[in-house]
Amino acid sequence: MHTHVTASIQTENYKTIIKSELNELISDEAVSVGGGGTGFNPHELLAASLASCTCITLRMYAERKQWPIEKIDVQVSISKDKVLASTHFERSITVHGHLSDEQRDRLLEIANVCPIHKTLSNGIYINTSIS
């Protein structure tokens, strides 16, 4: 799978327009750090990627199994440990529907193999060029 997005910033602190093939969104920093607060900050976007991927993956699985799920809520927080030079994601999933304990356990297993979870859990390599 190949994903491509483009981010562009002009002179307005720190409003960034992010575009994919079909969609557009705004990323920004909070007013308290000089931004306009007009969009998600970069860490929120990263957390949103994990949260939305988890929701989508669980919904797809539940639909295939025809499980009675009304709603799935996923909360993600990110914290950094400067001493260990590591990043910690905390993910909490609430599934609304009549499910057995076994079904809920299976959904937890499925959440842990959503594509963004796997990407963030494996080696990441970033190649950068500038012109």
Strand adjacency order, main sheet:
1-2-3
**Percent of residues in beta strands?**
25-35%
Computed structural class = alpha+beta
Helicity level, as a percent range? 25-40%
The span between the termini is 26 Å
Mind describing the biggest β-sheet? Answer: 3 strands, antiparallel
Q: What can you see in these coordinates?
A:
- This protein has 131 residues and is α+β, with helices and mostly antiparallel strands.
- 32% of the residues lie in helices and 28% in strands.
- The chain has a three-stranded antiparallel sheet with strand order 1-2-3, with no helix packed on it. It has a two-stranded antiparallel ribbon with strand order 4-5.
- It starts with 5 loop residues before the first strand and ends in a 10-residue tail after the last helix.
Could you give the topology of this structure?
Blueprint: E1 6-9, E2 16-19, E3 24-27, H1 42-65, E4 69-81, E5 86-97, H2 101-111, H3 115-121
Antiparallel strand pairs: 1-2, 2-3, 4-5
Provide tags for this entry:
131 residues; two-stranded antiparallel ribbon; alpha+beta; 3 helices; 2 domains; 3-stranded antiparallel sheet; GMP Synthetase, Chain A, domain 3; single chain
Tell me briefly what this model is:
By secondary structure, the chain is an alpha+beta fold. The protein is built from three helices and five strands.
